[in-house]
């Protein structure tokens, strides 16, 4: 007499509805944050070649785009500014009349329910492309002066809050940046402005397309002296803990898809809301493979997004945000 298994897990997968009932992870529109690049000008909609479907916008076209996203259920945007004029200290970052600040005001007036998050960094505004004030170490290598940069990051965050940002997101990876920004916001009367800290941000090759989009590649050297080494993931818990102690309201892991283990560990250690950034290179790989016919774009994007959520992220920053609003219903 033949022996058959008594436990047959395939019974739980026999129909789509049964699989839906038993799903342990569900991605919702309310989990999504859409990145957006804004620059000076009018009527600008420059496609970003390594990121098909993504654009640099001027304030007017950006406002139209954010309105479309909001109508489709995307609850939040993360804004990155691109400066035409750059200098050694990135002074355009805290210019109240710059594109980012003007767009914040326009969104807040037109769509007050949309959550506006602004990236706080100097790399898009410095002529050298680094995330702060540069200096030279004793060995002659270019480095970033950590403490001289803190005041400038705080000034930038305050200018975003003055424009109407709900949340500021420091990404420069300077030690003490959250404390400096929290102090600056509170002293300026913006104690209600939240901080989403890029607490766990690795020096990654997967940022390449973003640097094209934001026009922020370093002119010399790299960012490995301040962004985390991907081989030293154990530092992620300490990085997050320090930012929490300094006053971060939410924390982030970046990149996401290649760092699911880090997301899971940070989730296990901290109760604060956790964001994960599905970065430009991760997006570009899916786009390129789908255009080559090697995989199905919708299935791949939904699967990877679900994996990020499964690892423990509450919020997912993704360039697929608008497409996901359609795909999640299918």
Give a quick summary of the entry.
The protein is of the alpha/beta class. It is built from 11 helices and 12 strands. Strands 1-4-5-8-9-10-11-12 form an 8-stranded parallel beta barrel, surrounded by 8 helices.
Structure overview:
With 330 residues, the chain is α/β, with parallel strands linked by helices. The protein has a single domain, classed as Alpha-Beta Barrel (TIM Barrel), CATH 3.20.20.70. 38% of the residues lie in helices and 18% in strands. The protein contains eleven helices and twelve strands. The chain has helices at residues 16-22, 59-71, 99-110, 146-163, 177-187, 208-214, 235-246, 260-269, 280-291, 297-311, 321-327; strands at 32-39, 45-47, 55-57, 76-82, 115-120, 134-136, 142-144, 167-170, 194-201, 250-254, 274-278, 315-318. An eight-stranded parallel barrel has the order 1-4-5-8-9-10-11-12, surrounded by eight helices. It has a two-stranded antiparallel ribbon with strand order 6-7.
């Amino acid at each position: 007499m033949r022996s058959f298994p008594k436990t047959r897990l395939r019974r739980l997968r026999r129909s789509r509805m049964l699989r839906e009932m038993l799903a342990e992870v569900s991605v919702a529109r309310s989990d999504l944050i859409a990145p957006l690049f804004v620059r000076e000008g009018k009527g600008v909609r420059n496609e970003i070649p390594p990121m098909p479907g993504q654009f640099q916008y001027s304030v007017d076209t950006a406002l139209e785009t954010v309105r479309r996203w909001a109508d489709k259920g995307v609850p939040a945007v993360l804004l990155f500014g691109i400066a035409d004029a750059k200098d050694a200290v990135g002074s355009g970052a805290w210019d109240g009349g710059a594109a980012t600040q003007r767009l914040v005001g326009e969104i807040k007036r037109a769509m007050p329910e949309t959550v506006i998050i602004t990236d706080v960094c100097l790399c898009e505004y410095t002529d050298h492309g680094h995330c702060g004030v540069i200096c030279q170490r004793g060995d002659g290598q270019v480095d970033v002066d950590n403490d001289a940069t803190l005041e400038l990051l705080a000034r930038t965050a305050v200018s975003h809050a003055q424009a109407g940002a709900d949340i500021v997101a420091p990404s420069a990876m300077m030690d003490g940046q959250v404390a400096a920004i929290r102090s600056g916001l509170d002293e300026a009367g913006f104690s209600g402005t939240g901080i989403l800290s890029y607490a766990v941000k690795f020096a990654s090759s997967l940022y390449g397309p973003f640097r094209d989009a934001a026009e922020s590649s370093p002119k010399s050297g790299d960012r490995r002296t301040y962004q985390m080494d991907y081989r030293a993931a154990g530092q992620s818990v300490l990085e997050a803990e320090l930012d929490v102690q300094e006053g971060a309201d939410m924390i982030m892991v970046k990149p996401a898809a290649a760092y699911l283990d880090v997301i899971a560990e940070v989730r296990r250690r901290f109760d604060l809301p956790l964001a994960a950034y599905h970065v430009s290179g991760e997006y570009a790989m899916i786009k390129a493979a789908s255009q080559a016919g090697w995989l199905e774009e919708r299935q791949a994007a939904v699967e990877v997004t679900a994996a990020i959520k499964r690892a423990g992220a509450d919020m997912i920053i993704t360039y697929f945000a608008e497409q996901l609003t359609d795909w999640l219903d299918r």
